[in-house]
Each structure stands twice: as structure tokens, then as C-alpha cells.
Amino acid sequence: MRSPRDADLAAVQNSVLPAGPDERFVGSGVMGLPFASGHYLALRHFPATSFGPRFRALWHRDPLGAWTFYSTAPAQLSCARYFSSATTNEPVRCGIDVAWLSAWSMRVRVDDLLDWQIDMRSTPATRLMSTIGARLPEWAWTNRGVLAALGRAAGPVLGVGRVGLYGIAPNGQYFMTAPARVWAVTGSRALLGGEEFGPIGPLPQQARLGDFWLPQQGIFAAGRARFETFDAGRHRVATGVRGTTQTEGKESR
User: Fold this and answer.
1) How many domains does the chain have?
2) What is the pLDDT of residues 30-61, one digit of tens each?
3) 69, 71, 67, 68: which is closest to 46 by C-alpha?
């Protein structure tokens, strides 16, 4: 998997979930990308989950700090399941189209609302972290000591600020993430409702959702994630959803 497109294709063609009793995902996406204007975007593509259908999701933070979660799946079966209480904005179910323009560039469209292009490359730092991630055994990705050490190393090596590979999500579930392979985002152009976000650049203060810290530099990652199995007695429910379409959206490579 030399390129981000290779990793995305591999996740679709070989979407084998790790074993375990918790809620598990396999996929890829932009872990996060800050813009100097204060906007923030993230993309998730999960072709396999242990509790529901595959889905794509896009996260948007506006310059005032308000998050909106867009997804091709219902809120209860997508990222809002874990993160919805971090915002007063209702989750949105809609079409999310992804097209790979090359092995290193992709375009994402959220219905007629958002148009986002991302350019990526491999760097010495991403190659180092990917080499480490590819060699770690499966048990290491569920060991909090290993995840803590990896997060402390990844932050300064990648220049992304604080990294939290495990912790508690806003809705109360614990999580563990395993970004086994990573690439750097080198350029991007995004328009939301006709408004252009401007150049990419770190936020004045690093964004976070519960214990999940969003990177201060753009990173595309492929790997796995685990969340605690939903318990209505202990976890907040993702309710209230507005939508535009019920389609998953198209994807081309």
C-alpha cells in the first residue's frame, strides 16, 4: 500500500474486522485537516463495521467551534453514535461522493453543499510511523501502555500536536484507534455553500472531541478502531437527524 488510494482500496477489498466483543471498524480517511480560517474537516470511510452497514462520514467544525457530523448512515449507526453530544448541531444524513483523481489526490462532495479536494504525499515522518504501525502485533493496538507511548511519539514526529489513541468519546464510550499507515496532506481546497475555506494551517488552539484530539496538520490514515459497545443506560443516545438524501453516494477510483 504505497499510496492513500492503495490503502483505501485495500480496506474495501479486504475489510476483515479484528476480533473482540466491542464495536469495531476497518477503513481509512482524513483523520483531520485544519484551515487557517478556523474551519476544520475530517473524513471517515468504513467499508466494514461490527454493528451496522458500511458508511462514509464527514466532520465539519466552523470557525466558532461548532461541529456538524454528516453521514451516509443514520446517526445511531455512524460517527454521531459516539460524538454527537459534542455539538448542538443535529447530525445530517446525506450523500457523500468520493472520487480518487490520482493515487495521491481525492475529491469529496457532500450533496450540493461541500466540495473538497485533498492532495497527499509520503514523507520521512509518515514512512517511519507507517513502518512502526505495520509491524505492531494486533494485541499492541489494544494495550493502553503501547497506545500511550505511540501517541507521545507520533505527535512530535508528525508535527500534529497532541495525539490520543485511546480515551473516552463525548457520548461516554471508550475508544481505541489503530492508524497503522499514514500519509501527509500537502494541499487542499474546500468550499462550503460557496464559501472558500482558504489555505490550510493549524488552529490557534488544537481541537478535541472528548479525549479524541484532532491533528494540527493534515493526516490521511488507514487502520482500525474500537469503541465500547453501546449501553443506553450509560451512554448518550445520538438523536435528532436532518437529512437531504438517503443514498450512500458514489465512489470512483
Assistant:
1) 1
2) 999 999 999 999 999 999 999 999 999 999 99
3) 71
